[in-house]
């Protein structure tokens, strides 16, 4: 009987220690509330650097079109996630991450974004490799046949061929 009492006391003590550790890990109180109030402002401010990134990416003209579309499509993901988060909070009383069907739908837009970016980069790499493998243009190829033969004759004269 004494062993049963000791093991029960040990279990209660272990549970109390575990609960205390969980409480400490949760960061309940003012610091968590302060972080929660700063997060929306940080999210809004992060939009400006991303828009600058899109501006310079578009301006460079070197980005494959499908990749550029994918980076712009990320704004669709952001635009859909905000109302989905508001809906989750108002109808379910929890964050978007805890409402599986809404969270999954929003994340599928992020997956589509990633596909656009990767497929566009793949297309750009293939086009660059094809351009490298293509033979260099022949001199005089754009000239009329008569002009091309005259250019060839002038080259032969310069080279000393009769």
From TrEMBL:
Signal peptide: none annotated. The chain crosses the membrane at residues 38-57, 69-89. InterPro entries: DUF3593. Residues 132-162 are annotated as: Disordered. Residues 153-162 have a biased composition (Basic and acidic residues). It holds the Pfam family DUF3593. Keywords: Membrane, Transmembrane, Transmembrane helix. The keyword Metal-binding does not apply. This is DUF3593 domain-containing protein. It comes from Tetrabaena socialis.
